[in-house]
């Protein structure tokens, strides 16, 4: 799927996105709980880059726990970013946020950040070299030893384990009131439009993009998340 098609899909879903996935919020909440602990030693005035921020879940969670932190929210879908902006205004944290509608490649030059988040984004980049470049664009925008928390769908798709996980994943979404038609679209997307790779392969792509020791800190069904540290020798863009 071309990036413009992915963007159009999220444009269409933006208004109802949070409501649609509300019944799976416990997965998100657990990820955020761990994220908060992994970022706990960042400076009191840390600056955080949120890549593919969507409607702003991780940004709002981190902002609520850390009143001195500042955020740069990057999101190609204008309607999704609008929802994010509205939510930050409602939560009283918008003054600490900079919003960029677009991709990392179009983000103006910024000071290097203390950390970054990138949840369920790189999986939409099917070509491994481009996926590595995407992570390098994040690394360039981080300070030395800057942290990256990232997540993607991951599994060995040819394995019997994947069949079990995918079946359970679809049952979970069905229980969350995702329609049968939408489930079938999701199943097709996983096969054709999402780069579902083995966890070790995703970790190696992160590492090739300029990060050290990607450590898996979370798994819920098909979602895997890693904490990585920016490698030495990466310079600002």
UniProtKB/TrEMBL annotation:
Alphabetical list of Gene3D superfamilies matching this protein: Vaccinia Virus protein VP39 (3.40.50.150)
Organism superkingdom: Bacteria
Keyword annotations of the record: Methyltransferase, Transferase
Record domain Methyltransferase: where: 48-146
Entry's Gene Ontology molecular function annotations: methyltransferase activity
GO term, biological process aspect, one: methylation
Identification of the protein by name: tRNA (Cmo5U34)-methyltransferase
Source species of the chain: Halopseudomonas bauzanensis
